[in-house]
TrEMBL record:
Keywords: Methyltransferase, S-adenosyl-L-methionine, Transferase, Ubiquinone, Ubiquinone biosynthesis. Its EC number is 2.1.1.222, 2.1.1.64. InterPro entries: SAM-dependent_MTases_sf (IPR029063), UbiG_MeTrfase (IPR010233). Pathway: Cofactor biosynthesis; ubiquinone biosynthesis. This is Ubiquinone biosynthesis O-methyltransferase. Belongs to the methyltransferase superfamily. UbiG/COQ3 family. CDD domains: AdoMet_MTases. It comes from Rhodoferax saidenbachensis. GO terms for biological process: methylation.
Length: 239
């Protein structure tokens, strides 16, 4: 393992400042709460979570981790933001969420410590915030058991995503704080597919996510030009 942490201090600081608002449904994190049922049902539809051991990489305040635990999984959420993790832990206590724990550790460090320990690994809305997304993808592949599933979601890099995800969401509609995303860090589906393939993961399903600002409704579709999700699986032969 390298001694350099695969994290951007500015990104950690940015989300740490907002940590106390993770579970405020009218805060900057409202879009995550709105899309969470979509991504949770998509994951659970491909791989039912009941009774499985799941890991949420870049869990933040625990929105997805908490919901996966309520679907019956034993969940570990990891992040490098101490403040966000404290909020996640406090919410788990207040909401009496069963079977969820949180740790401040990087995906790479946990992969070295506990390889092939999870049935399901999720890494949602996180890859576009780290210096080396391929390293995170490799760590996720190392953490999942042979036959297990790794789910990713991120932002495409292109003219439409710049218009919708940055100008629209951050500057016009104020859905997200300005500066939440950097265009250069967005990842094309072809790039993420390459990272996954190099990590030994097989791509099984791709979904796009769209948003109507008038109805304020999100839905999954075949349009991956802005937000998209990947379902990948580690072959059993990787044992």
């Amino acid at each position: 393992m390298t001694s350099t942490l695969n994290a951007d201090p500015a990104e950690l600081a940015k989300f740490s400042e907002l940590a106390h608002r993770w579970w405020d449904l009218d805060s900057e994190f409202r879009p995550l709460h709105q899309i969470n049922p979509l991504r949770l049902n998509w994951i659970n539809g491909i791989q039912p979570l009941q009774g499985l051991k799941a890991l949420d990489v870049g869990c933040g305040g625990g929105i997805l981790a908490d919901s996966m635990a309520r679907k019956g999984a034993d969940v570990l959420g990891i992040d490098l933001s101490s403040k966000a993790l404290k909020v996640a832990q406090l919410h788990a206590l207040e909401a009496q969420t069963p079977r969820v724990e949180y740790r401040e550790v990087s995906a790479e460090a946990l992969a070295a410590e506990a390889p092939a320990q999870f049935d399901v690994v999720t890494c949602m809305e996180m890859l576009e915030h780290v210096p080396d997304p391929a390293s995170v993808v490799q760590a996720c592949a190392d953490l999942v058991k042979p036959g297990g599933w790794v789910f990713f979601s991120t932002l495409n890099r292109g003219a439409k995503s710049f218009l919708f995800a940055i100008l629209g969401a951050e500057y016009v509609l104020n859905l997200l704080p300005r500066g939440t995303h950097e265009y250069a860090k967005m990842i094309r589906p072809s790039e993420l597919a390459r990272y996954a393939r190099h990590a030994g993961l097989e791509l099984h399903d791709t979904q796009g996510m769209e948003y109507n600002p008038i109805t304020q409704r999100y839905w999954l579709s075949a349009d991956t030009s802005v937000n998209y999700l990947f379902a990948t699986q580690k072959p059993l032969s990787a044992a």
